[in-house]
């Protein structure tokens, strides 16, 4: 790496000496500018932006320290080396305050100048190396974040939202609000109508995506999905508690964004916006956004609330409730399932007579059966498919239908809950068996995770959730309890007990024992 050096001195001889030494002795520095006054140095620093400035303090007009102050305002990363015929304490003190790299006195020897400049270039090399690493790391993080964002959005698109830990995702994206909404942007060339999109048109449309992402990220905390053929799905966090106000603000923002993107990229856009929902119901917002997008009202921006206002008989409320119910079933949340079903029956007391609502509930019952099969629930007499569907279709009155819905869905949800709990227990129980068998070895979280076939991060979270403490704390408790039993027997030395309990360092074992029990191993032996 080559660096630009500006030499500032009012003596020609001093300047020429520095130029000669640098040219002959230092290969990675080039004297690109010279200045004979503080004012000239400031002007040339503004134009040329040198990496290093060799600055004489005593000059007519603006002195060296004043020039340094001004240059740092222009170019904060430049390195300064002060040269002076005097070792003034005040100058040295000010130089330190200004962050000057070094302070050398005249007459400057060749070796002194070479050593000083080489040290400065080493510091610059290290600084640039760190900057390159930081940029590389940042780039990797941004790429990884994009992958995670896309994964988050795909859960809605693939109907898997009920199986996602939203809290974990929101922590990754630093989203603190408890409410958010989904909107979908569809893009097409102005030459064609909305509908089927050609592959070459899709590639052309990708040019607008970076600007879309930047504009959205600048406005608010959000998660931007990938451009899939002709659509982008976006999750936008929402802090406004006023439903009407946040709807108006969302439409206003998207109208301005759509206009900007259309004018710049010569494309046509249409946006469908779902209602704001809590985490457990966010999949409903996605479905609403899709319906709003497909609603043909001649508008570029369509909010689901406006669709409902114009079409009150379209059944969007029951649709929203059924999505919540499906998510509760997937989570195995029996209480919430019963609560949602009760709300539906109370809200639609005449549902059994209204064919479109009854049919939607029948569809949900079929989906519930599919969820049961996907989760590995055995098809017993209670949910054997043919019998299951026959019972649903043969209900002849409202009371029987309500009872059948509650019983079947509660049964499926409780079975899913049992399976989820059993899955967790199998892993943790196996981990505890390994700990009991091998606590006296160098047992690590990575090793046990690999043996169980899960990631260390997942195992760590799972173990703490199940046991109420992390893996290391539990392993330590097991080892200390074993050590206490050996101490009480009085057959082994403290060193031998340390080794037998999984600790190769007896001093560390003693400190850990005292931290856990409040007394040292030897004191514990005396009391036992």
Compile the SSE list and pairings:
Layout: E1 3-8, H1 12-25, E2 29-35, H2 38-48, E3 52-56, H3 64-74, E4 79-84, H4 89-97, E5 102-105, H5 110-157, H6 166-172, E6 179-189, H7 199-205, H8 209-219, E7 222-228, E8 231-238, H9 243-265, E9 267-273, E10 277-278, H10 282-294, E11 301-303, H11 304-310, H12 316-331, H13 334-347, H14 355-374, H15 385-393, H16 398-438, H17 445-452, H18 456-467, H19 471-489, H20 494-500, H21 506-517, H22 521-527
Helix pairs in contact: 2-3, 10-12, 12-13, 12-14, 12-16, 13-16, 14-15, 14-16, 16-18
Query: What is the overall shape?
Result: flat
CATH C-level of the largest domain: Alpha Beta
Instruction: Summarize the biggest pleated sheet.
Output: 6 strands, mixed
CATH topology of the largest domain: Alpha-Beta Plaits
Distance between the termini: 69 Å
Integer average pLDDT: 82
Can you give keywords for this protein?
single chain, 528 residues, alpha/beta, Rossmann fold, Alpha-Beta Plaits, 4 domains, 6-stranded mixed beta sheet, 22 helices, 62% helix, flat
Characterization of this structure:
The protein has 528 residues and is of the alpha/beta class. The protein has 22 helices and eleven strands. Strand 4 (79-84), helix 4 and strand 5 (102-105) form a beta-alpha-beta unit. The longest helix is centred in the N-terminal third of the chain and has 48 residues, at 110-157.
Nutshell version of this structure?
The chain is of the alpha/beta class. The chain is 62% helix and 12% strand.
């Amino acid at each position: 790496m080559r660096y630009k050096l500006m030499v500032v001195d009012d003596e020609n001889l001093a300047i020429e000496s520095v130029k000669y030494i640098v040219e002959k002795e230092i290969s990675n520095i080039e004297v690109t500018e010279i200045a004979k006054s503080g004012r000239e140095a400031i002007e040339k620093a503004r134009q040329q932006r040198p990496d290093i400035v060799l600055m004489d303090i005593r000059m007519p007009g603006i002195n060296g320290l004043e020039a340094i102050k001004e240059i740092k305002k222009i170019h904060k990363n430049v390195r300064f080396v002060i040269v002076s015929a005097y070792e003034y304490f005040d100058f040295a003190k000010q130089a330190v305050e200004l962050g000057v790299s070094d302070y050398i006195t005249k007459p400057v020897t060749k070796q002194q100048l070479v050593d000083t400049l080489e040290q400065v270039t080493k510091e610059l090399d290290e600084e640039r190396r760190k900057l390159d690493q930081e940029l590389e790391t940042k780039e990797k993080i941004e790429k990884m974040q994009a992958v995670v964002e896309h994964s988050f959005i795909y859960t809605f698109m693939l109907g898997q939202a009920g199986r996602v830990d939203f809290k974990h995702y929101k922590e990754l994206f630093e989203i603190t609000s408890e409410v958010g909404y989904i909107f979908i942007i569809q893009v097409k060339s102005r030459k064609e109508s909305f509908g089927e999109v050609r592959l070459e048109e899709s590639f052309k449309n990708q040019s607008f995506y970076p600007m879309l992402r930047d504009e959205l990220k600048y406005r608010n905390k959000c998660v931007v999905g990938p451009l899939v053929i002709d659509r982008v799905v976006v999750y936008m966090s929402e802090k406004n508690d006023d439903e009407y106000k946040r709807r108006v603000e969302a439409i206003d923002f998207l109208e301005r964004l759509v206009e900007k993107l259309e004018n710049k990229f010569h494309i046509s856009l249409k946006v469908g916006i779902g209602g704001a929902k809590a985490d457990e119901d966010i999949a409903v917002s996605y479905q609403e956004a899709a319906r709003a997008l497909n609603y043909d009202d001649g508008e570029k921006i369509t909010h689901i609330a406006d669709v409902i206002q114009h079409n009150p008989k379209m059944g969007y409320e029951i649709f929203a409730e059924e999505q919540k119910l499906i998510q509760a079933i997937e989570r195995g949340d029996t209480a919430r399932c019963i609560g949602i079903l009760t709300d539906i029956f109370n809200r639609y007391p005449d549902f059994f007579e209204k064919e479109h609502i009854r049919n939607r509930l029948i569809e949900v019952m079929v989906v519930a059966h599919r969820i049961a099969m996907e989760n590995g629930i055995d098809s017993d007499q209670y949910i054997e498919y043919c019998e299951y569907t026959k019972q649903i279709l043969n209900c002849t009155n409202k009371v029987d239908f309500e009872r059948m819905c509650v019983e079947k869905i509660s049964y499926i949800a409780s079975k899913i809950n049992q399976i989820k709990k059993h899955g967790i227990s199998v892993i943790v129980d196996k981990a505890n068996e390994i700990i009991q068998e091998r606590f006296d070895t160098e047992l690590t979280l990575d090793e046990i995770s690999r043996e169980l076939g899960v990631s260390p991060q997942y195992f760590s979270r799972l173990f703490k959730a199940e046991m109420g403490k992390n893996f290391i704390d539990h392993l330590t408790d097991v080892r200390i309890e074993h050590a206490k039993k050996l101490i009480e027997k009085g057959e082994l030395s403290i060193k031998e007990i340390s080794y037998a309990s999984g600790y190769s360092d007896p001093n560390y074992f003693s400190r850990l024992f005292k931290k856990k029990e409040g007394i040292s191993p030897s004191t514990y032996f005396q009391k036992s």
